[in-house]
Amino acid sequence: MSTLTESRPRPAVPAGGPAPARQGPRGLRSWASVAWFLVPALVLFLVFVLAPIGVAVYTGLFKWGGAGPMDEFVGLENYTRLFHDRVFLGDLERGLYLIVLSVTVQLPFALFTAVLLNQRLRGRAFYRMLFFAPYVLSEVVTAVLFTMVFLPGTGMADHLAGALGLEGLRGKWLADPSTVVPTLFVVMTWKYFGFHMMLFLAGLQSIPDEVLEAASIDGAGVWQRFRHVTLPLLGPTIRISVFLSVIGAIQLFDLVWVMTAGGPNHSSETMAISMFQFGFKRYQVGYAGAISVVLFMISVVFSLFYQRYVLRRDLSGAITPGGGR
Amino acid sequence: MKARRAARGLSLHAVVWLIGAFVAAPLGYAVISGFKSTGELTTNPFGLPGRWEAGNYTGILGDGMFWRQIANSAGIAIGTTCCTVAASAMAAFVLARYAFRGRELFYALFTVGLMFPFAVAVLPLFLLLRTFGLLDNPLGVILPQAAFGLPTTIIILRGFFRTIPAEVEEAAVMDGCGKFRFFWRILLPMARPALGTVSVLAIVASWNNFFLPLLVFDSPTWQTVPVGVQQFQGQYSTDYALVLAYIVLAMVPALAFYAVAERQLIGGLTAGATKG
């Protein structure tokens, strides 16, 4: 599946093995000549990735409107306020809800589609391309498209609900607090299931046919082969998929901002939306900084735990992110 | 037996077709609605337009703003890709092929960048860019995007550079080739497939970024496609057919790029996940 691995020449160094300590010519191992190559990336990384984290931590300790001197030091007050903030606690709850939905609905759906398209089926190349296409679109375009689809009265969804006898849903979708998050989840699934399907397809193709044949000779049926051969062998891919879904759900912004801006009445707000609201609309920049820090802590703690306890057996450190949500 | 297999094939097709409808219906709805007037959209939501009106589409295509946003997005994507690939290739080169003190530490430093969601950095980035005077400047989007692209790019390129056999470098050195010459004249040309993959990933990420350009660009001069789409929707929020036509046209470059670069895009995205 991966063009990278296919076109690779034979590795000079076993992957994940010890560092290739090669005697470079003319003292090339010396630090000075190496540094020259590292500097551009290091500077970019320090200034635009690491420094902002520091700035967020610092800003979060102040009460500050975003302009003028930062002189009202409040210590951890922003954080105590945060954990009594109904909306922020709701953000956490909604984040968790979206993660649960992703893992229990979206990923199985993607896996099902991948298994389907891994069979000999006329037009499967076309279907693969079609299912992946939404992933290439920006979240904003997707959001505007579905704003139109779910428009009360005019949109396609209302007409469809009418035709299917789901009168109760008409006019609700994004407009009602009880349906907005599931509706957003449908849009997320539309956009991202193709990405996970591609991951699963790559994983499925790395399972040797002989293994499945052997199971079949031993009398395993279709379901048993899937349950006891395919699924365990797909373990690493599934674990990566879950990881990317969680990271994506934690930082969800564009889609929600354009479709609902967190409404109605905060019922679809995410952490990133709260941060944006306080930082850029309500000029409580210190408080928004504290939200950034918490968002950061959650994703780092989750990533470390996940890598330590779940991914540890799978990989030598390489994950391609790119946002599966 | 034969009949059963045929039935199974048929139901398989039905299921795939149904999923295809779920994906394609919103897209088809948008394309067709773009040819209607908003009035007709309300009375005739699903049918083909009574009269195919290309006015929505041609109006947008005749508007300089649309093309300006495309040009801005393209320029920023190219700038981001050049920065991130150049800086990553240099770093990945020494991280892959030379032993020096602290090498694994540097590599680890870059890989932890994978854990930092972009959303975390947006607010402090805005403050930093304001201090540097980079607001309303394309560099204010290009440099942070390039920085956040480093981890993935370095991981993929380092993996590729490690696969190029030591003999190649030894032969080059025998011919009197210095480190920089080897990197520039031999390693990079050999790494073309990997460079293609990481470039495609960087272009797509930049093209679709919304959060940062939304904050950095105050005036329409530099607005990118996603920001433009959002603004357009705000401005013409009641002219549904026109908004749908706009997003259809905004989709075209991304889908065209996908059609051309499908292999690199999917290869790059699945590269890490299939290593297990």
UniProtKB/TrEMBL annotation, chain B:
May I have one GO cellular component term? plasma membrane
Q: Where in the cell is it found?
A: Cell membrane
List this protein's GO terms for biological process.
Answer: transmembrane transport
What SUPFAM superfamilies does UniProt report for this protein, alphabetically? MetI-like
Q: How does it sit in the membrane?
A: Multi-pass membrane protein
Segments spanning the bilayer are 12-32, 74-98, 105-129, 141-161, 182-207, 240-261
Q: Domain ABC transmembrane type-1: where?
A: 70-261
InterPro entries, per the entry: MetI-like, MetI-like_sf
Keywords (alphabetical) are: ATP-binding, Cell membrane, Membrane, Nucleotide-binding, Transmembrane, Transmembrane helix, Transport
What molecular function terms (GO) are annotated for this protein?
ATP binding
Family, as annotated? Belongs to the binding-protein-dependent transport system permease family.
What is the name of the protein in this document? Thiamine ABC transporter ATP-binding protein
Which species expresses this protein natively?
Answer: Streptomyces katrae
